[in-house]
Automatic annotation (TrEMBL):
This is TonB-dependent vitamin B12 receptor. Residues 1-25 form the signal peptide. It holds the Pfam family Plug. Gene3D superfamilies: TonB-dependent receptor, beta-barrel domain, TonB-dependent receptor, plug domain. Its main location: membrane. Belongs to the TonB-dependent receptor family.
Amino acid sequence: MNYQKRAIAAGVAMAAAVVALPAQAQSAFQPAPSARGLDDIQVTANRLPQSQTDVLASTTIIDRDEIERSQADSVIDLLQNRAGIELTQSGSPGTTSSLFLRGSESDHTLVLVDGVRINSATSGGASLEFLPVEAIERIEIVRGPRAAAYGADAIGGVIQIFTRRGGQGTHAALDLRVGEDSTTKQNLFVTTGDTDTRLNASLFHRDGDGFNATTADNSGERDGFERSGGQIGLSHRFTDRVSGDFQALRQNIDTEYDNCYPVNALTPVNDCRTKGYLQTFGGKVDVALDSDWQMAITAGHFDEQREERYAGDRYSTTESHRNELGIQHNFTRDNGVDTLGVDYRQESLDFDSASPYAGDYAKDSRENYGIYGMMQRQYGAHELTGALRYDDDSRFGDETTGSVGYAYHLTTYQRLGASFGTAFKAPNLIDLYGPYGNNPDLDAETSKNVELFWSFDRDAWSARVSAFENRIDDLIAYDSVTYLPYNVDEARIRGVELSGGWQGERLSTRLAITFQDPEVRQWSDDYAGVEKGDRLLQRANRFARWDVDYRILPVWSVGTTLSASGDRTAYGGDTTAGYGVVDLRTAWQVTSEVELSAKLENAFDKDYALVDGYNTQDRYVEAGVKLSF
């Protein structure tokens, strides 16, 4: 294949350029170490373990302690209104969700589970509603383009979810919870291991009656849900130089929703149902080839199935499949790290529909080869990063992306920096070859992003101010008459993020405030009602989240989360009103083996919407017990 040859040639040239970069002697000036220890280490931004204080990108870590403390039911609850992040969901738990990171489109954020992409091969978005919090060890959020590291889809940023890990000794925990709307939850986590081998497994189940999905439905019916699954992890150190790990996750889902059209129906019905699953398998082998040369070999597999049933009859079944392979080399220098890597991705889909209007996918698979290089250097008070990547896609062609960043240490604890990066989004298979209308000549959506930041990190304190502008060209729109996709639109997103927190022995708090202007710069005349200067749909100009937890006694803690958002422009020109929601929680460690907890969501019973015309959870009470062995 010609595109394979071009990818290899570009990779060789890039490898030579990166290796030729000089390595200077490291200065005595060093940033202050973080007081947060291992919880401060992240791997997503540059695909290798680093302290957040050594990363120029804007990042957030949500660790297992915070997940358990928050008593969150879903990944959507964990991410909502954090710096740069907005989410929508069309009804009860398990219904379709969309994520908008820094005002970009819902398919402009790359989502990984243990390094494996879970973005759909059809729509390009990730089914966050399919992911169980019970199986998650930590979540890493990286804001801003990361295409030079990961290739397509990372225009807004990258979110990586790591599943649970094992530890030394044998331990188990059983979580049992009950809530309103006949909600029940069960979760069992078991781990065993020693210094060389560790094994863990999780089983989880949740179901409930839910609530009525749409505001137009006056029948009083509820849209219920059920999800269940399991997770397993295994790691082993073969020698002092070689180690490996394997992770697998499976989540089944069955959820009801409203407003679908059965075959040949002229009006919508509220008897709609999605059944399906998401599963990932990922493995990695780390090899120390030398004291300053580390190699990682990775492999992953992803499957997602969605079966839609309308009025009891099967309407369609869509399956996404993806295989991935990668080799990465990290070279440690006296004052930094060089990285060289190559990866391969093959994805395909299966589609079947009872609709007389649906055809077949003209082409239902694609391949992508990527070669990348990254460098990081510190020269006294100066930090410099750079990355370059070449991708060749078998369906739409090749793309080269890059990034560069610089930071200056004003003091031991403060940095001032700037970065520039390019990114792209490969056209989705449904747009290129889909059954309802397609355009195989689509170009990739591309972006250019500039960011300025100031950060502070000292002991328990952390703060960051980031100002960014992201210009996205060749956005894919749809003709209002033919419904065919085409490249025409442009958007400019400007914003400022304020984030920070305190992590003390008793008090922990984290605040994030986002101001943004996601603006249409050019839009097709065929798309009625959209003009230059209009706000991008379903995005707010401002939103915030404030989490506070306090340990009153060594065995008793309380906490609250305040989420707020301004209004958003809805489809059809309507406006979805802003909102403010308060959640409360408490936990009591009765003994070392028994913990009781409870939460009150939407404490003031706020009537609000994330998507115009769809309901959200009203006041909700839940309690549970955790038994540790």
